Amino acid sequence: MKEVTVKTLLIVEDDRSLNKGIALTLSQNDLTIHQAYDLAAAKQIMTSHKIDLIILDINLPDGSGLDYCEQLRRTSQVPVIFLTSNDMESDIVTGFGLGGDDYITKPFSLMVLRARVMAVLRRTDPYRKDTVAIGPFFLDFGKMEYYKHGRPLILSKTEQKLLRVLVANTGNILTREQLIDKTWSQDAEFVDENALTVAIKRLRSKLEDEPSSPRYIKTVYGLGYMWTEGQHP
């Protein structure tokens, strides 16, 4: 069974050679990589893409990565791994105190960095969490209890699996093949594509205010489906 893993990373590092090396190393894990060489570019990327993890240098040409992380934490819990040549214990404590998820001092091994990036992604992956609060929804996949605005939703087992895959990849397009493979597991190769269409339709009827004009489960024509956070088109 092919695992659905759609992760997007942002590398903010002004050393272009190091930035490129990190990107090449991490791209081997089928991760989508965005690169920035200063905070201005990083902020622009953050507004136009859903980022699952930031690798953030502390000393940047236009500011401090520590200050940027502190700003980020006011509105976002995106995981942050600090990169820095500052190896003082007080600097490391400050990094964690401002909301960093890991702290790597230069020089470092790219293989070790990759291992630590994958560890943080596993730790913070919403698909691995039993409960998710997103928009008007509270979803408890462990207890199989689902609510919208505090009111319970009754979902079939297939709808629950489909919802979990969609929510775990919020903001990312999932193809029909990926959704069928993940939702129907071992039976995926025997599932008619129409089964997915029907499941999406039923799920929308239970989650959407207006199923014919969905805000959460969007159809991306010619590609697949995407869970959004309810933004208007």
Automatic annotation (TrEMBL):
Signal peptide: none annotated. Keywords: DNA-binding, Phosphoprotein, Transcription, Transcription regulation, Two-component regulatory system. Residues 129-229 bind DNA. The keyword Thylakoid does not apply. The keyword Transcription regulation applies. The modification 4-aspartylphosphate is found at residue 57. Residues 8-121 form the Response regulatory domain. This is Transcriptional regulator. It comes from Paenibacillus durus (Paenibacillus azotofixans). The lineage of its organism: Bacteria, Bacillati, Bacillota, Bacilli, Bacillales.
